[in-house]
Design a protein that fits this description.
It contains 3 helices and 11 strands, in the order H-E-E-H-H-E-E-E-E-E-E-E-E-E. By secondary structure, the protein is of the alpha+beta class.
């Protein structure tokens, strides 16, 4: 009985790992799917078509660092990102598709070496996904429009939310107010 359970668990783990590790261009495409997000310029919810590109198209439209972070779930070294110490007023957007993500008013110095925020511009402007990599359980933050990896959210932030959205500068683009 224990052997059967072990074999079943191993088969499930293998199948999950296989699907999770498929190259991006082999995964099902989202063509024509729309997403509703908050637009900070118009100050209202807008509908955007989901951005779907092949790996080669992403490589052409992003810098190597942006590609590694947004498409390969990489991370920049702490204290090296251009937005960690930025204190100007404006909006942080997804570097892959321009979706508004965070207001500068919600940015704080977490001391971690990555830009950190207490909340997104709207709940719809980020997607949360369980991340079981690095032998731990974390919550990954993705762009809902292009699916790009942005960073992770933790429950050790300041008031009013208690959240720390720890983002990669390489996944962001800043629009000055």
């Amino acid at each position: 009985m224990a052997r059967k359970a072990l074999l079943t668990a191993a088969a499930c783990f293998f199948a999950w790992g296989f699907l999770y590790c498929l190259p991006e261009q082999s995964k099902p495409q989202a063509g024509g799917i729309t997403v509703t997000v908050y637009d900070t310029e118009s100050k209202k919810m807008v509908t955007r078509e989901r951005v779907v590109k092949t790996e080669e198209e992403w490589k052409k439209s992003l810098t190597p660092e942006q590609f590694d972070i947004l498409r390969k779930k990489g991370t920049e070294r702490a204290f090296t990102g251009e937005y960690d110490k930025l204190n100007e007023k404006g909006t942080y957007r997804c570097a892959g598709c321009g979706t508004d993500l965070f207001h500068s008013e919600d940015k704080f110095n977490s001391g971690t070496g990555w830009p950190s925020f207490t909340r997104p511009v709207a709940a719809e402007n980020v997607t949360e996904k369980s991340d079981r990599s690095l032998f731990t359980l974390r919550t990954e933050i993705l762009c809902p429009v292009c699916g790009g990896h942005l960073g992770h959210v933790f429950d050790d932030g300041p008031v009013p939310t208690g959240k720390r959205y720890c983002m990669n500068s390489g996944a962001l683009d800043f629009k000055k107010k």
